[in-house]
Each structure stands twice: as structure tokens, then as C-alpha cells.
Amino acid sequence: MQVSDILRVKGGTLYTTTPDDSLAHAAELMAEKDIGSLVVMSKGVVAGMLSFRELIQSVVKNGGSFGNSTVQQAMDASPLVCAMDTEMDDVRRMMLERHARYMPVIDKNMLMGVISFYDVAKAVVDSQNFENKMLKAYIRDWPEAGGEPAGSTEESAP
Fold first, then answer.
1. b vs e for 134-146, b when ≥16 Cβ sit within 10 Å of the residue's Cβ?
2. Which strand (E) or helix (H) includes residue 107?
3. Which helix (H) or strand (E) holds 125?
4. What is the CATH code for 3-131?
5. Element (DSSP H or E) covering residue 4
6. Dihedral, CA of residue 54, residue 78, residue 29 and residue 97, to nearest 10
7. Beta partners for 76?
8. β-strand 110-116 against 102-107: which pairing, if any?
9. Within its chain, how far is the Cα of 11 from the centroid?
10. C-alpha to C-alpha distance for 88 and 140, rounded to whole angstroms
11. Separation between Cα atoms, residue 74 and residue 107, nearest integer Å
């Protein structure tokens, strides 16, 4: 399974911000849209990633408030990125290694979407459920010793 498969199911709604946007405004947008991250765009390219992790770290650093902080001051300026044809196993490995919860998907320098750790976990569970269903169907139709599938009602003529 590839990243493109997940984005096809997930849909293409994207929320972005700019490095110069206020951190307070970015937090408001994230709360309003009930999302955990914003892709930071500058001049049409991904400049960073802002998640609740960076928001909280910035608030703690500022003594419990956003103050006049900008997105650029809090964002991850070198986020993990992947391509549409990246395999899900590779995405899962990269996210686990970097403790990343969100990963922008880039195709020819264009932002295509964001994959979350939730999206990866859901894809794995859905894939396993499908595989389990197929295996159960296969086992249910397993041929008996006589060569006929289990539950076959055909009788042989004398």
C-alpha cells in the first residue's frame, strides 16, 4: 500500500499557515478545525510543520502564553516528508524513528496532503481486517480429504 492509496480515501482537505502568522492565530485555526497540525507554506513550498507538540513547547517557553510568537519561531523547520509512491511500511518506520505524528506528502514540489500516524494505523488495521476476512473465507472453503470443499452437498452417482 502506498501513500496515494491513503490520500485517495482520506480526501484532499488541507490546512496551511505561513511562517509570519501569529502562533495564537494558528492555534485558533487548529482548534476550530479540530486538526493536530498545519503545514507551513512559504512562496508555494513547504517551509515547516506546526503541530500541537510545537505549540505546547512554545507556550511553556513563553511562561504559559503565546505572546507575540510567530509560527516560524515554533515550527519544525525540517519536517519529514514523503512522496505519493512511498510505501506505507516506509512511512510507518520513518514516523516511529522520528516520533512524528504528521508528514506532508510532496509531489514535484507540490503539497498533496498530510499523512497522520492515525491514517497509517487505520490503513494497517483495515488491511489486516481485509486479509483476515479473505483467509477466513479461504479456510471455510478448504477442501476435505475427498477433494470436495467443506459443506459441499453434491452426492456422487452410483
1. eeeeeeeeeeeee
2. strand 102-107
3. helix 117-140
4. 3.10.580.10
5. helix 3-10
6. -60
7. 49
8. antiparallel
9. 12
10. 30
11. 25
Cell of 98: 522520528
- Any idea which of 17-26, 40-49, 88-97, 145-154 has the lowest mean pLDDT? 145-154
pLDDT digits (tens, 9 = 90+) for 94-112: 999 999 999 999 998 899 9
Measured in residues, the chain has a length of 158
Q: Which residues contact 86 (CB under 8 A, 6 or more apart)?
A: 2, 3, 105
145 pLDDT more than 80: no
Residue 139 corresponds to which cell in the numbers above?
A: 479456510
Domain regions of the chain by residue span: 3-131
Give the per-residue pLDDT at 153: 53
